[in-house]
Amino acid sequence: MRSPVGLYSSSNSAPGTVTDFLDLLNPQPGHRVLEIGTGTGWTAALLSHLVGAQYVTSMEIDGALAALAEKNLRDAGVHPYVVVGDGATGCPERAPFDRVHVTCGVHTVPYAWVEQTRPGGVIVLPYDPGFVAGHAVRLTIRPDGTAAGRFDGFAEYMMMRSQRIVACAEQGPSHETRTRVDPRMITQAPPGAALAMSALTGLHIGSHQETDRLLTWVSDPGVPARWALIIYVPDADDHEVHQVGDRPLWDEVVNAYLQWMAWGEPDRDRFGMTVTPNGQRIWLDAPQRPIG
Ligand SMILES: C[S@@+](CC[C@H](N)C(=O)[O-])C[C@H]1O[C@@H](n2cnc3c(N)ncnc32)[C@H](O)[C@@H]1O
Question: Which of 103, 206, 215, 244 is deepest in the core (most CB within 10 A)?
Answer without folding.
Answer: 103
